[in-house]
Description:
Elements: H1 3-13, H2 16-27, H3 29-57, H4 63-87, H5 95-100
Helix pairs in contact: 2-3, 3-4
Amino acid sequence: MNRQRLVTLLGSLGIIPFFLALVIMITRPERGLRLFSAYSLAILCFLAGSWWSAALVVRESEESQRMAIVLISNAMVLAALALVLSAWTEDCWDWRCFISGS
């Protein structure tokens, strides 16, 4: 499999959890929203990692600009994580609760 086909395949497969969350929201809104939130956070983490690699590899930018990108990407992920966790109830912190939607 060549690189273009692999990228297209992985990009297409990456949409499935969003559609799955939408379908689950019809019958179990809380569970669907949790799946959507968790997967969105995973996508954000992936993008932040991409920004890290770009900031550390590209040498055309100033050092301060590259470090700002690294710090901002970390801050974005931590803020998103705080928002996702704050949306979950206080008595529901483990993955079994996430999966069951209770």
